[in-house]
Amino acid sequence: MKKSNMTGKQIKSLRNYFGLTQKQCAERIEVGTRMWQKYEEGAPIKQLYLDCVFRPENHSYETIVKALGIIEHAEIKA
Questions:
Q1: Residue 5: which residues within 8 A CB-CB, separation 6 or more?
Q2: What is the gyration radius of the CA atoms in the chain, in angstroms?
Q3: Which residue from 10, 21, 32, 35 has the highest number of Cβ atoms inside 10 Å of its Cβ?
Q4: Helix and strand tally (H, E) in the chain?
Q5: CA 3, 29, 36 angle in degrees (round to 5)?
Q6: Exposure on the CB side of residue 21, measured as CA atoms within 13 A
Q7: Phi and psi, residue 3, nearest 5°
Q8: Which tops the pLDDT comparison, 68 or 4?
Q9: What pTM did the predictor assign?
Q10: 53 with 28: CB under 8 angstroms?
């Protein structure tokens, strides 16, 4: 499985942007809330998990583009 290149800060920014709780994200990939917290703290996460949580079909194109802007901003601050 491919690991994501996203940082914990980027994952947290995306979650907040989409208005999801840590519990909701954890439930979508069937892990505990504490594990999701570890991902947001920088633990490696599989790209497949992020794809499941932030599925494009659940969001409009404009929303995804805005979220990508958040990711780029987080990279600059990281």
A1: none
A2: 12
A3: 10
A4: 5, 0
A5: 70
A6: 6
A7: -85, 150
A8: 4
A9: 0.74
A10: yes
